[in-house]
Amino acid sequence: MKKDHGFSTKFFAILALLLPVTASAWQPGGYPAAPLRMYSAGFSVNNQDRNDVVAFWHAVYQASEGYESRVNWTGNYTGTNGTVGNTFLDDVERRLNYFRAMSGVSANVIVNSGANVFIDVADPFKPGLSMSKAEAAQNAALMMIRNFNPATGANPALTHNPGSGLVGWSPSAWNAAANGNFAFGLYGPGAITEYMIEELSSSAATSTWNSLVGHRRWCLYPPATDFATGDQPGSGPTKPPTNVLYVVPRASELLDEPSRGFIAYPPAGYFPAGINSPYWSLSCQGADFSSATVKMTDSAGKAVAVKSTQRNNSYGDPAIIWEVSDAAAVQSVYSDTRFNVAISGIAGDGIPTSYNYTVTLIHPDRITSNQAISGPTKVGAKGSGSFTFTPPAGAEAMQVVSSVVRSTAWKEDAENSTKAKAALVDGTGSNYPLIVKTSTFSGFGGLGGTASFRLTFPTSYDTIQRGVPEQFFELQREILPKAKCKLSFLYRRGYMTKASSMAVETSSNGGLTWSKISIIKGVSDTQYDAAATKASISLPKSSTPVRIRFRYYTTGGAIYTHEAAATSPTGIFIDDVTVKNADWLETKKSNAISSQTKVFSLAKGSAGAKLAPGDKWHLRLRTKLGGKWFAHGPSKVVTITK
User: Fold this and answer.
1) Domain 378-407+584-641 belongs to what topology?
2) pLDDT tens sequence across 10-59
3) Distance CA 137, CA 231 (A)
4) Within a 10 A sphere around the Cβ of 250, how many other Cβ atoms?
5) What CATH architecture is 417-582?
């Protein structure tokens, strides 16, 4: 939102009121007791500590996910703008404070405090002085959706100066549009994330000035203390979600504090790649970036191209903004990826003339701490073995997982639904079951029995994912493929268009990354398979445990959905999954140990079963950070002797 306040930050500071802290500071391992949820403010994080950044991501950022189930919107699209639930407001506040803490500014802002709107003397439309920001933002969010024409895509309400002839227009809706960020196709915490990323896409039309990162700079404005959100969750592609975030502060709301100095995004230190941006920025109160230049290098010192550079003094503090190369704009990495930034030619009273820093993009579901276990390769059946390891920094808890190698045959089928559910990780939609009786569909018939696993698209558009939601199920089994290993299963395409595919994938790092080993594509837009087909896929030999999943996705185009055809056999049906020429791990016990423990003794009690001569055991360390249990470390293989 671009607006000339007509007054200076220094004037703000004179009138500022210091708001009280509303929550205790977050610390790794310090969480509210159930059923309470993570705090929404009072955060700080050490960006130079990778594990702290990872823990902060899972404990705080992820705590606001799932907000769609907590929005509790009470309005409609015919004139009742409604309200949203308090827990949802906490989700928005937490997400905003997460980004502020990561960027090194005060993370104590309040959302929907009841504060009144900002009114400029030059405003052409003025709501009543008692109008709250929250109500104004809600009015603007509904004005945006009520003027959307899904047939043409036109929406005259997507402007910071909406005309009085629009449906749902009011002086308060105008005021919030003039003083707020707004997002179309997003709402709640999802909109906050997009304001920070500033990435234009066809499904997230925030504004045409993302390259000046105005949304982000208002969200990170250091002295800000009070914001308000207006939201409606949408109901599909013809009624997408909307958000208006009231960002322009009143003078009395601003913190009276010394300058925070340079505020970078992404900030110096470790940073989750998923919230990276094609537009990097550096802002500072009182700085003059008019002659400043930006240079970037990678971890090897090789120059990284800067596509374009802009300077801007609106949207909070002065800033320099540069569009980075595709290599630096990545939003998915496996290995830590470092970029060095050097900005020179900065001017301003008391402002350093240059600023150098390093950003390291990380995968926040991966910890790089050493989780290896050291010790003997053989342990007597009637004795015990002592093993050592180094607790990862910041670990909240740890486990040593004891698993024995088995070679017995197994098969995952859908006949016993209780047993089958326990053997799978279910990643399907809530409006259809993963395990289905094929007799449910008249005339369709079965595969190998009366039931099967099924993957289909639950809907054609998910308002959170902003597209067709992928579906999957994963075998809850760790496999050790031997030579000539084969994965086999039965499958049968239901109504599955040529734009639909099922990938069979494997992971050797606990599900952190997946590799396709086979793809089954739709072959007809109008017919289903007359009979089941048996698939047989080779798996390479591996001493590292391997996981398997089946993932259903679209490559773009027409699809069948359960929502549109609930009584028809849409999607693909799978059954009788098995692997030949492979061992597998049977986990017998997960030994809970303190985060300070460095020694583990393998014996009958800690193994969870008798130590039989000839058996092989895998000992693996697991670490908990930010309330999340991470993938096992490497196996320490131990053979049991007489």
Assistant:
1) Immunoglobulin-like (2.60.40)
2) 222 222 222 222 233 456 666 676 667 899 999 999 999 999 999 999 99
3) 8
4) 16
5) Sandwich (2.60)
